[in-house]
């Protein structure tokens, strides 16, 4: 099943062989789901050759999908076919895909299903709202434990998901469901009105969850969800700007709070302690490592780097020991090499410290 699609991809492969290969894969599919990805690849390589089999194939996939009640490898195979199928025919299969969307929405959300739904949104714009409504309802139920209220009802605040987060700690599958649901919120480009129902809820509860995976997913998702609000800020009328600003501020404040107060800060304390290691080589290695960590979490690392720089300058100016002065100069050189923008405000202080040392004939060679 892996070989046939590759052979069909060659230009030298004639129509007769491609038809025979497709029939073979379809025959295998009727017995085992492994034939579904092979069919998808054949359709992707030669959509025109197999266009007369669209109806029969999609009807079979639809019927087989109904028989699978839980997430499984079989479902993943069918979703792989649908992903490639939609990517091949685009709007030509609008009617067939529209008919199968309600069936897809009844299946628990998985990564492979989410990929299929995103492909439908991209390739068949007419079905974008159908997909978004279904996905939003599924995600809302996963994160709140409640059915999503009708659009006509005023926006209400669901209760705290305390029990949902507790189950995530106890059950790995529940954890995966929640992480996926949070990820999907940032991937499907929902309308601002739709996002307002759930964005602040995620920021208030899932950004502060005990589980690291959930927090990381929530940070990424919140950053994606807030983009549309930031993009229209200058375009809205003055009377609406204040409300919009409060929405943006509430989410960003929650994200920044997590970055600064993350329990993982404790793990960095060991790195900071190494800045005062008795071995000078260890201190230099720590400066290099902190330079890399600063790119990942500047709010946490940069204040310590500033303090370390001031201590190093003080040591170079006041220690009176050539070895420590040389070591301090190497530390500062490493900082300047790694983070020139960080060092720019301190150039004046560096010159004040370095020039007198360079004038000292006994220490020029060491520096």
UniProtKB/TrEMBL annotation:
GO terms for molecular function: protein serine/threonine kinase activity. It comes from the Eukaryota. One of its GO terms (biological process) is TORC1 signaling. One of its GO terms (cellular component) is cytoplasm. This is Uncharacterized protein. It comes from Caenorhabditis nigoni. The gene is Cnig_chr_I.g2688.
